[in-house]
C-alpha cells in the first residue's frame, strides 16, 4: 500500500471512492489543541483527532509525556472517527506531518491495512487550490477492530541496549541532542550511544524528500537495511515521523515511545552530552 498521497491524487480518490476517511491531527508543541484551527478550515469531511487524548494517554512521569493509548481506547477513538474495516484512511496536519505520522504509526501497526499521510498536509491542499470547509464533522460511529500494536516498539531497556546491536537514532534538534538546551524535560543530553539524525531533515517545504534522498540520510547515520534501527525523540511524536521516513526509504525503524521524556524521568539512566554518541556520560 502507498504510504503518502498528494493533494491532487487525494482529490481524485475522494471523487471515486466513498470509503476514504480523512483525519485532521492539528497538534504542535506551542499549540497542542488544534481544534479551534480545525473549525476554521479543514478538508471536506475530515474528522478532528485529539493527539493528547486520543493518540496518547495520561501516565506517570517515567512513562514520558505521550504514553501510548491502550488498544481499547484507540479503538474507541477510531470508531468515533467513523472508521470501518476496509476504509482508506488519509491523515494530515498543518506542520510537516509530525502529528499525522503519530496517527499513521499507531493505526498502521494496529491492523489498519491502508493508512496514508497527505504529503504537504493542509498547506499543500490549499496551495493546490482545493476546497476546505468549516465547522465540526461528526460521522456515524464506525466498527473497526484494532489489534493492538503489532509493529516494532522498544521499551526503555531496549533503548539502553540498542546501540550495542544496531543504530539508535535521536531525532531531536542538534542542540537538544548535545545537551545545550532542554525546554521540556528534566535533564539535557541524549541516550549514550545514540546518533543524532533530526527528523526535520527528512522534509522540505512540508513534503517528504525523495526515497533515495531519505535512504542516503539514514545511511549516513549508519541506518541501512539489515541493521536494527530504533528511534526516539522528545515524547514519541516525531520518532513516528522518522519511522514513516524510514518506511519510505526501505529502512524499518522501531520506535521508543517514551523517548527522552521517559528516559530523563527514570532514575538510574545515564545521560550523554556533546556531539558524539557516547559523549560525556553522567549517571542519573
Main sheet: strands, sense, barrel: 5 strands, parallel
Poorly predicted ranges: none
- How widely separated are the two ends? 43 Å
> How many separate helices?
11
Using the coordinates above, name the CATH class of the largest domain.
Alpha Beta
Mean pLDDT: 95
Share in helix: 25-40%
Number of strands: 13
Element-level helix/strand string: EHEHEHHEHEHHEHEEEHEHEHEE
As laid out across the biggest beta sheet, the strand order is: 1-5-4-2-3
- Which structural class matches the secondary elements? alpha/beta
Integer count of domains: 2
Radius of gyration: 18 Å
At the fold tier of CATH, the topology name of the largest domain is Oxidized Rhodanese, domain 1
Quote the beta fraction.
5-15%
Shape: globular
CATH architecture of the largest domain: 3-Layer(aba) Sandwich
Amino acid at each position: 500500500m502507498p504510504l503518502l498521497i498528494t493533494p491532487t491524487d487525494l482529490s481524485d480518490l475522494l471523487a471515486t471512492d466513498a470509503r476514504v476517511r480523512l483525519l485532521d491531527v492539528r497538534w504542535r508543541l506551542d499549540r497542542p489543541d488544534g481544534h479551534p484551527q480545525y473549525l476554521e478550515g479543514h478538508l471536506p469531511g475530515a474528522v478532528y483527532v485529539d493527539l493528547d487524548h486520543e493518540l496518547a494517554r495520561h501516565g506517570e512521569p517515567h512513562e514520558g509525556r505521550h504514553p501510548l493509548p491502550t488498544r481499547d481506547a484507540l479503538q474507541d477513538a477510531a470508531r468515533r472517527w467513523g472508521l470501518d474495516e476496509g476504509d482508506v484512511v488519509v491523515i494530515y496536519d498543518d506542520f510537516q506531518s509530525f502529528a499525522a505520522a503519530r496517527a499513521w504509526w499507531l493505526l498502521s501497526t494496529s491492523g489498519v491495512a491502508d493508512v496514508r499521510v497527505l504529503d504537504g498536509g493542509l498547506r499543500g491542499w490549499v496551495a493546490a487550490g482545493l476546497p476546505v470547509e468549516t465547522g465540526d464533522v461528526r460521522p456515524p460511529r464506525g466498527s473497526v477492530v484494532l489489534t493492538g500494536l503489532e509493529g516494532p516498539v522498544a521499551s526503555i531497556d531496549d533503548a539502553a541496549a540498542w546501540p550495542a546491536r544496531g543504530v539508535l537514532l535521536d531525532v531531536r534538534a542538534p542542540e537538544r541532542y548535545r545537551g545545550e538546551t532542554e525546554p521540556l524535560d528534566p535533564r539535557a543530553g541524549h541516550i549514550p550511544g545514540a546518533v543524532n539524525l533530526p527528523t526535520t531533515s527528512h522534509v522540505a517545504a512540508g513534503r517528504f524528500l525523495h526515497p533515495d534522498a531519505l535512504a542516503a540520510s539514514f545511511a549516513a547515520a549508519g541506518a541501512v537495511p539489515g541493521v536494527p534501527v530504533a528511534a526516539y525523540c522528545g515524547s514519541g511524536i516525531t520518532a513516528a515521523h522518522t519511522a514513516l521516513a524510514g518506511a519510505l526509504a526501505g529502512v524499518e525503524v522501531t520506535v521508543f515511545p517514551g523517548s527522552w521524556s521517559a528516559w530523563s524521568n527514570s532514575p538510574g539512566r545515564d545521560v550523554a552530552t556533546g556531539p558524539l554518541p557516547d559523549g560525556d556520560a553522567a549517571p542519573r
